[in-house]
Every structure is written in structure tokens, then in C-alpha cells.
Amino acid sequence: MSVEPFLDPGSPRTRFGAEMRRLREEAQLSQAAVAARLGCTQTQVSRLEAATRTPSRSDAERLDRFFGLEGATSFTRLYHRILAKPGSPAWFMSWTEEIEPNALVLRSWDPLLIPGLLQTEAYARHLFVNGPRAAPEEVEERVQARMQRQLILGRENSPLLLVLLDEGVLRRKVGSSEVMREQLSHLLETTQRPDVSIQVVDPECMAGLAGPFMIAKLPNGQPDTVHADSPVEGQVTDDPIYVASIWDRYEAIRQWAYPGHISMRKIEEVRREWT
């Protein structure tokens, strides 16, 4: 099954790739030739031009030097505009722009909160409003970024989303009782989709207490990539040792998950408790 990248044609990352391709073709250079000059692979050049890879600072600076743009520094300027994308920290962009939209399967474990891909707007807003030093304009940017992120679930080739959720999350009050009822109703509605599965995990499971994470299965034989969260800065990596460790933890948690029909019954029971 092929997956078309989910790209915004007006985004700085897409313009970065288009400008790179334009200058390369004007110079009558192949992608392999540019890769040789930049000290990277042809695949990396191809992904930059297709906007399926987020450029690094060194990518931008080398391209400005290579194409003689020291004065205009156009690639460096676009790189900074990519980093300035509202609502998402820079370290998370490689996940939300490259990994998540192109994944075939997303596996998620959340011991504390409803996962971002399944949060209602009211639930997400309460989380952001009550974050440390939350400025009103930043809250709205982050809420809208989260809602935008969820658009991948409405695509024709949406990823298969497999969610493991600690039972305590259903009873952790985020906002009002109305917010919680709406959120749990949303979970029940979402599971009617053939590409979404939610399993509630017995709260006695100890394997997941280290924190939330996601595992992405990517197309074309690309290695699995994981995102592990933390209060300061999450980690996105396809390092085989790290990925294997996360997979082991995921399987240990999954052994404590209730079957789908029991999970739905538990969500419904807790939803009725939020009165």
C-alpha cells in the first residue's frame, strides 16, 4: 500500500524543497551531483526536494554556500521560518511533518492523558491553558496545531492507529465533567472507524509507568521510528537499539490490555460517571 505524503504546498518546508529543485535544475545538476557536493546521499536530496524531510541548519547553510546565496541566505531564512511554525516545538516537527503523516501504522501508549491524535478541542485547550506560563495567543496556536495534526485520520490512506490507554486516564479530570463526557464520547465514536483501535490497559500494569511513546511503521522498507515524550524535550529516533527497547515495552503493556469490546464497555461506563 502506498501512502501519499500529507504536504502543505504553501509551507516553508515545501518552498525549501521547491527552491532547491529549481536552482539544481537551472544549474543542470542531478540529485546525485548535488548530494556529492553536500556530503549526503541522493535519497536525502530527493527527500529534501519532495519536502518529506525537514532540513537541518547545516543543510540550509551548505545550500546557500553551494548556490552562491551568501547575501540573500534564502535557505537559511526558510529554515528559520520552518522552526517558527506556530504551535509545535522544533524537536517535534520531524515527527508531525515527516513520520506521522506518512506512517502505515501508528502504535501509541498513553499512561496519563488521552493521546493528542484523539483529543477533542475542549480537552486540548484545557491542557494548554493550564500549562506553565501559557500565553493566550500561544494556547490558541497550540490547540489549532493539534487539531490540524488530527487531519491525517481523515485522509483516504490514513494510518492504522492502535492505541493503548491506561484505565486511569478515563477518570483523570481534564476540564469540566462536560469536557470529559465529550472526550469519552469522541473515543467511542472514533473506534467505529476501521482504521482506529483503542484498548484500555489494566491499571495494575507496571511496564508503562516510564511514560508515553509512539511507534511508527513506515512504507518502503524504512525502519520503524519511535517518539518518546518527556516534560522538556521528546526524542524521535530510528536507532535499532532504542526502537527494540520501546517495542519490548509496548508488547509488555499490550499483555495487560483488555479486548476491544471490553475496552469500549469500560469507556462507556466511565463516560456515564461523568455527570
Automatic annotation (TrEMBL):
Entry coiled-coil feature ranges: none
HTH cro/C1-type domain segment(s): 20-74
Gene3D superfamilies the record matches: lambda repressor-like DNA-binding domains
A family per Pfam: HTH_31
InterPro entries named in the record: Cro/C1-type_HTH, DUF5753, Lambda_DNA-bd_dom_sf
Highest taxon in the source lineage: Bacteria
Designated name of the protein: Transcriptional regulator
Natural source organism: Streptosporangium pseudovulgare
Lineage, opening ranks: Bacteria, Bacillati, Actinomycetota, Actinomycetes, Streptosporangiales
